[in-house]
């Protein structure tokens, strides 16, 4: 089988910044945000520029366990990374779009997709700036990335009956990684409060002995 041709989109803010400068508007906060995003991109590209898949090639068990509940159709994988969850969904017949800041991660995701004979659409973007189109996705994934203002945007992007699946670390993870930034850790039961208006189908908080995380599957009415 011929390897699928990867689809990669890239967003740039340079033209917008140049326009703001020309019209005399303050651009320092935007520049600070842009600089932070570039530093974040460089950091993740460096992490992913290894032959080994940093987080493995298998999807998270919570996704595998609840695959049968997910409505087929268009899936959005936010903070896709190296693609382990998005590629898994693509092999199950979903049309998958991934968004991440790292081109290096996407190269590995596309390589894995090609191996399995499926395609992905990948969008290189900073999730703090990315606008999610409303009412077009049947499934949205976001794993091991916490940006609290993203939750209402994810809910708005779902079609009626669509589902969100989220998994990320909780504050209990500090016992294993004391240096972890607390801002990016969920409080206990916090995930249950971040998707108001959605029906919670499954929820868990897990401590494996070397990691602590929460997982949720919720459905839009």
Describe, in plain words, how this protein is organized in 3D:
The chain has 221 residues and is of the alpha/beta class. The protein has a domain at 61-160 and 194-203: Rossmann fold, CATH 3.40.50. The chain has six helices and eight strands. Strands 1-4-3-2-5-6-8-7 form an eight-stranded mixed sheet. The longest helix is centred in the first third of the chain and has 21 residues, at 28-48.
- Give the rounded overall mean pLDDT: 86
Distance between the termini: 40 Å
Give the name of the CATH architecture of one domain: 3-Layer(aba) Sandwich
The CATH class of one domain turns out to be Alpha Beta
Helix/strand class: alpha/beta
* CATH topological fold name of one domain: Rossmann fold
- Strand percentage, roughly? 15-25%
Q: So how many helices? A: 6
**Main beta sheet strand tally, sense and closure:** 8 strands, mixed
Radius of gyration: 18 Å
In brief:
This protein is of the alpha/beta class and 221 residues long.
Sequence-ordered SSE layout with sheet pairings:
Blueprint: E1 7-10, H1 14-22, H2 28-48, H3 61-65, E2 74-78, H4 84-91, E3 95-100, H5 103-115, E4 121-124, E5 137-143, H6 151-157, E6 158-169, E7 199-207, E8 212-219
Parallel strand pairs: 1-4, 2-3, 2-5, 3-4, 5-6
Antiparallel strand pairs: 6-8, 7-8
Helix pairs in contact: 2-5, 4-5
